[in-house]
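Reopening: PAS domain S-box-containing protein/diguanylate cyclase (GGDEF)-like protein still failing for me.
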Amino acid sequence: MIKTKQQNSGFILKLDGDSQIKEVIFNSSREKIRFDSQNFSKFIDPGSLKKYFSILKEVREKEVVFGREINLQLGEKTESYIFIVLNNLAEESILIAANQTEGIIKYYEELMKINNSHVNNLRRSIKDKIEQEKPLDDEIYNEMSRLNNELVNLQRQLNKQNLLLKAEKEKYRITLSSIAEGVITADHDDQIVYLNSKAEEMLGWNLSEARGKECTDIFKIYIEENNENDLEMISDEISKSEEIEISLSELLLEKGEINNQEAILTPKNNNSFPIEFSAASVEENQGKVIIFRDISERKDMETRLRKYASTDLLTEVLNRRAGLDYLQEEMEKAAENEDSLTIIFIDVNDLKLVNDNFGHQEGDELLKKVSDILQHSLRRNDKVVRLGGDEFLLVLPQSDQEAAEKIWLRIRKKFKQASAANDKDYKIAASHGAAEYSPDYQKNLDQLINEADHAMYKEKKRMKSAENLR
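Support: Ran it again with your exact input. Result attached.
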């Protein structure tokens, strides 16, 4: 969809303490609204009246309120305007309003310049009038002098407020530039308004290049489908991925704000990386602010810790605890899907003999060779588990005992090939026993392992008997 640029529209009014319009200082509204000498509250949309009166109360305490949005009822049309309200010394207010949201701080400064220029022009014209014309009487002269003094005081007050606004802007700029997080602001059309230096670095875009572009042209955010925060996902699943793209605007509309959410950020010009982000809507959903940080190092550490917690350090296969957890999960899936599952219990032959004759380092090498052969003989969803010592377990989902025996024949053949290539005086071999979990005969985990263990010892006993007969 092609978006047309919003036309500038705004006005500056002087109001008394009851919101009565005393003067129209400036008016560039598209509709050329006729304010006349009416009460300004008549132009406020009923839904925004409470907010408007709250602003008037606040400005009496703070002298200046800026960046607030109010909906105006202009004929049959309702439109959102940004307000700056200044309180002068004569219990009156200067109200500056505009419909633009982009580059709002810069806009404040421009409005201040317009207003200062207006005050200066009024002051000069009154001063010239006083100097050029002889006052008709003391009363007129005193009134004009009073008005001139009032304008001088107003200008001083505006100068003070300009300095405050400038100081606030500089403080925010320095703060946003120096923090370690990336900061992005976007308007209600999802177009980029601001990037701090960290966001520029992480996204690979300069603010000057990114400003005015839609967020999705600069970056995309993906959340894992099974994320623990259980956020409702907005878009379709991405092909070949367990992550789906989210629409921040729709999510914020529903949730109001997002706090410390983990996700994947994909800039248009850079590689994806994990982030933790928070986001919130600006007043009345007229835009959004996103704060994010790169958590790649933390994620790498978590991955390493998970690996250490679940992996046998010598062979780099699943350790006993993680392996039995995996077996239990697969047994539950098999029961739910009325499918079969088979395990193979493996005992490496003569490990003690290798340790005694060649040293424990050689024994470790034997276990690593066996583990490597097992891993390269299985399907993608099959797992190798080291139960401890010389014992391994193969978990073969969606397999019956016949399929498991075919896998074992392939493994045994590789053992023989490795033995033939081994320059040490021992064979690489193992005994095995298989047990099947099926819908017809469901066993618990201990029963299944004991059955496979018993079958393995039967084979080991037969092999020893055969050797003794030679």
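The chain has three domains: 10-175, 182-299, 311-469. If you still see a failure, please send the error message rather than a screenshot.
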